[in-house]
Amino acid sequence: MYRVSSVLPRFALALLAGVILATLWVNLAPASYYDAIEWRLLDLDLPRWMAPLPISLTPMTLVSDGLMALFLFIVGKELWEALVAEHGSLRGRQAALPAGMVLGGLAGAALVWILSASLIETAEEAGFATGWQVPLGSDVVLCYLVGRAVFGQGHPALHLLLLLAVATDILALLVLGLSQPLVSLRLVWLALPALAALAVWGVYGRALPAEAPERLRQARGRLWPYVLAGVLSWIGVAAAGLPPVLGLLPVIPAIAHADRSFGPFAEAEELLHDPLNRLAHALSWPLTATLFLFGLTRGGVDLAAFAPTTVTTLAALWIGKPLGMLVLGLGTIAVLGLKLPPGISLRDILRVVVVLAPGFTVPVLALDSALPGGAMQEAARLGLAISLLAGALALLLPAGRRPGRRTDA
């Protein structure tokens, strides 16, 4: 039976703890909160060919651009395994439903944002369609926390839910990086992550023939070459003008991995010892602290920030994303003449869509690039926080338990 690793609920609780603490802080003492997260630890004056704009390291940027790249690495790992490993959920015709739902959710959220923003004046400094990238993302850990309560630990719909959240988050950040680069794109820098990935794959990551000596097999299991390639990749992605949080994704295909996929964040992966899973295991507790710090530095919700942008955010997440997922996802399998995955009913699909309607972690990462600073960002952040209430609706519609299956966490 498919069971999810215990690290995921721990991640969710750490994130929520940081968000709650930050929200209390920003509403009781806003000046000290913003002084703390924007405190300049170090100002870097790098050559213009490497960084056209001055760089100030603050607690907020260190967490969002640096530490959160480790979290996106874990999310990207799950997506990569679903694409290439045996029994991967995104291989062959079985990929039609999740692919359609992901693309439909992205398109629906963007279109409803643009439509609602054109009908409601969001801010004087906002132009047409400003901020449409904000509602594209989801929140893997919080969606799982709600989904587990709705479906139970062993329900196949939980597998689909996590797969959709993982794919949505990665694609949302890629769209953000290409449409709203931090500076003008300098794609020549992407040669650095490409070369780092190719080099580490050629020496360590590629599959070895059966007659390969034990010396080579032991070398293949070393982790430090992948760590070095990851550092070079992060530098190249950041210097190219893309969000630094995406910096570790290019090296994932180069890392030696297991041949079989057990599902997103599967508990069975804790027993695997390939380099990719070993890196994931090593990051488990550091990522718990990272998500708490992310909630603390980026999750402070100003409860008095309600504005038209809040309504636009909720419309995109609660109307655009679910409708897009249903229309394109179900439409895709209808056109191809496919059936729903085994053990999943249409009612389960509806519940999955409701659970995925909220967005927080990845949309919060998109705020700085997609929206003008100040009140508009705070209004959108409030909308993202309110969107989490969709989980309550999902809890009011619990899925039927399958006979003979355990549903405890």
Description:
- This protein is 60% helix and 1% strand.
- The protein is mainly alpha-helical.
Which class best fits the helix and strand makeup?
mainly alpha
Strand order of the largest sheet: 1-2
**Whole-number mean pLDDT:** 88
Assess the beta-strand content as a share of residues.
Answer: under 5%
> Number of helical segments?
16
Sheet of most strands: 2 strands, antiparallel
Please bin the fraction of helical residues. Answer: 55-70%
Could you state the oligomeric state of the chains shown?
A: single chain
Shape: globular
The separation of the N and C termini measures 13 Å
Radius of gyration: 21 Å
What are the secondary-structure elements, in order, as H or E? HHEEHHHHHHHHHHHHHH
The count of DSSP E runs of length 2 or more, i.e. the number of strands, is 2
In a nutshell, what does this entry contain?
This protein has 409 residues and is an all-alpha fold. It is built from 16 helices and two strands. The protein has helices spanning 7-28, 30-37, 59-84, 96-119, 140-151, 156-179, 191-205, 214-220, 224-239, 275-282, 284-298, 308-336, 346-356, 361-370, 375-387, 390-395, and strands spanning 42-44, 55-57.
